[in-house]
Amino acid sequence: MKRFSIVLLLCVAAGFGYYYYFRKAPVVEVPQTRETIAVKYAADDIEIHESPAETAPAISKRRITEPISIVSEKEGWSEVKLSIDKFGWVASSELVADRHEIGSTKEKIRFRVPPAEVKQRGPRGSVIWLKVAVTAYGDVADVRMWQNSTGKKEMTDLHTAAVKKAKFYPMMSEGGTLAPFNYDYKVEY
């Protein structure tokens, strides 16, 4: 009887050992990775939508010139990868293939949003020069008066306020990096 108890105990122990050693590992779902078909760049500050419609809720934003991974395209919309398992939609017209298409250069500084027109006029032949400091993303950081031959401080104030609301296209280096820059804004009467 003693021998039977020992054999039974060994069989039970072997059974538990076998079960724990060879049992199936729990199934863990791994998110599907989707291949990037293209990398494009935001042509302006853009919103990424939940579905391919302008009325769909915005779920993310991207700044001008930021790279965006495209996983599919459908009827004027691009499906973009936000993370491993999160996707959104952006109008294809808001993307460009080459970030140099949207940047300013030293030879050609461009406005995304030009300064508002100042209705008040200065004396004929007068000039206002403003020094404008612009961030790497094209936002106006600072405006300083350099010259004002109108004789009216309020003219400088009006043009300074207008320029502060302007937005520039970012300055692109030859290597494709963004850099802050200065711009001389001139108003002639």
Put the structure in a nutshell.
The chain is an alpha+beta fold and 189 residues long. It has helices at 2-22, 153-164; strands at residues 38-42, 46-49, 58-62, 67-74, 77-83, 86-91, 95-96, 111-113, 127-134, 140-148, 167-168, 171-172, 178-179, 181-188. 21% of the residues are buried.
The total strand number stands at: 14
Number of helical stretches of at least 4 residues: 2
What string gives the helices and strands in order?
Answer: HEEEEEEEEEEHEEEE
Spatial ordering of strands, largest sheet: 6-5-4-1-7
- Determine and state the CATH class of the largest domain: Alpha Beta
- Unreliable residue stretches: none
Task: Give the biggest sheet.
Answer: 5 strands, antiparallel
Rounded Rg: 31 Å
- Indicate the structural class: alpha+beta
Report on this structure.
With 189 residues, this protein is an alpha+beta fold. The chain has 2 helices and 14 strands; from the N terminus they run H-E-E-E-E-E-E-E-E-E-E-H-E-E-E-E. Strand 9 (127-134) and strand 10 (140-148) form a beta hairpin. The N and C termini lie far apart (117 Å).
Which keywords apply here?
single chain; 189 residues; alpha+beta; SH3 type barrels; Fusion Protein Consisting Of Minor Coat Protein, Glycine Rich Linker, Tola, And A His Tag, Chain: A, Domain 2; 2 domains; 5-stranded antiparallel β-sheet; 3-stranded antiparallel β-sheet; 14 strands
